[in-house]
Fold this sequence. Notes:
- The complex is a heterodimer of chains A (372) and B (241).
- Chain A is of the alpha/beta class and 372 residues long.
- Chain A has helices at 33-37, 44-66, 85-102, 111-117, 173-183, 190-198, 222-232, 264-290, 305-318, 320-323, 333-336, 341-352, and strands at 2-7, 12-19, 23-31, 75-81, 106-110, 141-146, 151-158, 161-167, 246-247, 250-251, 294-298, 328-329.
- Chain A folds into two domains: 2-123 and 333-352, Nucleotidyltransferase, domain 5; 141-236 and 254-329, Nucleotidyltransferase, domain 5 (2-Layer Sandwich), CATH 3.30.420.
- Chain A is 39% helix and 18% strand.
- In chain A, strands 3-2-1-4-5 form a five-stranded mixed beta sheet, with helices on both faces.
- Chain A is globular and about 65 Å long.
- Chain B is built from seven helices and eleven strands.
- In chain B, strands 6, 7, 8, 9, 10 and 11 form a six-stranded mixed beta sheet that branches. A five-stranded mixed beta sheet of chain B has the order 3-2-1-4-5, with helices on both faces.
- In chain B, helix 1 (45-60) crosses helix 2.
- Chains A and B meet through helix 2 and helix 3 of A and helix 1 and helix 2 of B.
- The structure holds zinc ion.
Amino acid sequence: MNILGIETSCDETAAAVVADGRRVRSNVIASQIALHRAHGGVVPELAARGHVTAIIPVVEAALREAGIERAGVDVVAVTEGPGLAGALLVGVNVAKALAYALGRPLVAVNHLEAHVYANWLMLPPADGSSPVAEPPPAFPLICLLVSGGHTELILMTDHGRYHHLGRTLDDAAGEAFDKGARLLGLGYPGGPVIQRVAEAGNPSQFDLPRAWLAESYDFSFSGLKTALLRLAEPYRLPQPSEPAPTSGPFPEHRAAAFAPDAPLADLAASYQAAVVEVLAVKTARAVVEFGAKTVLLAGGVAANAALRARLRDEVARRCEPELGPVPVRYPPPALCTDNAAMVAGAAFYALRRGAQAGWETDIHPRLRLTGT
Amino acid sequence: MSTSEQPREARSWLLAIDSSTEQAGIALADGLRCAEQTWDAGRAQTTALLAEIDHLLEVVGIGLSEIQGVAVATGPGTFNGLRVGMSIAKGLVLGLGVPVFGVPTLAATALPFAATGLPVVAVVSAGRGRMVWAAYGVQAGNWSQTEAPRNGLVSELAADLAGRPSGVIVTGELNPAQEDAVAAVPGVLLPTRILRLRRPAAVAELAWTRFRAGDADDPVVLEPTYLHGERSSPSSAPGRE
Lengths: 372, 241
Ligand SMILES: [Zn+2]
């Protein structure tokens, strides 16, 4: 069964074809990063405008790369939320009309669930051979979903059965990286740039606070950001007095400037270590408490190498004495950030549960992952 | 089928979509017949529009395969409203493999009054109390837009109208307060509220010649007119001295 997935919840316009919930036949992403970089973050109105002109070429490329015609699409799946309203409604309305025109079922997918299901996907090997079928993740599992918009700790006991354990009370992990990078004048998006700069730094050089929020699986990163600002302040150069340039109606962001002797690498490494430690320790604790058989990482921040390493360490140290080996799995980088293959993948399992959407399907900008 | 019934000739139907504002509209036209529906969709255009298109097809008794083109109002209007119609249009042309025709919302607003020969100022709500308007009239024997669109508050529209010769028709959506402000301008001809509503049939009508000629828009680059997002204070608006 070929499912065409469409994803427009934030700043990536994406379409993909996935066979039977796991085999990625194409995965096309038109990134708007260049468009938003000048503003230091995603401008919702610009994102929505970008989707309108990117959507047709992206869908056509996904069909072409999968080697199928329109008629070869068996199901159309689309992200219904959470996300930016103006961005979501482009994907949802295009997908609805496309499914209607093709006479195919429509499946509306929760973006958070889609991220989790990225761990079921198999990319075709570069040499064109068919992918080796990895066994699917075993239940029950703990999934740490970390991205620019979300930080969620989820217990999943079966397909479609989620128990929400914790979430961020303020900034998402990816947002914490974006804001940290912005404070250090490193650019956007923050996760990759902090990771790169941190490679040359000492993660224990600066003592940054960890918000443990005892007895809870919730997270908080806003205090950390304030502490970083205080540490970085003495090295900051004054801002020029002329106003920031503008591109069209939206103001541009001006990067902070630092003295040449500023310990940016140590600051970045210490900051990254503080974010990563809380994420890894809480996830490992949940694995022990619920006797999980698998640990999944998902979302854009799952591509962070320091997080992956720390999570493996914590799981090995805290879980294996009691539970034996617990595999820590994460999708390949192309499937960690927002993509449509994960939407098509999640739709396959949702459709098996009868989750077909009607033509009145709406967007759900504040959708959460709940239900069993 | 009974022998007394004429077998319906398979025709090319054009589907027109207008979700420029909360007043949504859809129409099906084949050059002879037209079915249209216009309703206050509020913010619920995403939930309503495709379901209503499905319903209208059923009412007219035609299948999707008889839709040979899609016309869509391109704005100005509310940004998200415009994007809903544009996205539905793009999904349909992608799935059906038929051409798309973008129609300016203000042109469709003005069209029903073209035969009067009088100058027409067409108005569309742009949300948050702002409005966009443009003048239409006969120019070199043709009905066309005679001035570039302006955007502003109703007080600015009223000041604009006050500077025009008597006998200008103002049409389009106005809320009661805006209606009072416009009606107070001497020389303005204000049709009744229901007759001022944009008609999706006008969107179909304006696309019809291009539809017959195969003069379609590129569905990839077609996008709404984001007029009031740009700088367009009265002093910088072109076309007015
Ligand atoms: Zn995401």
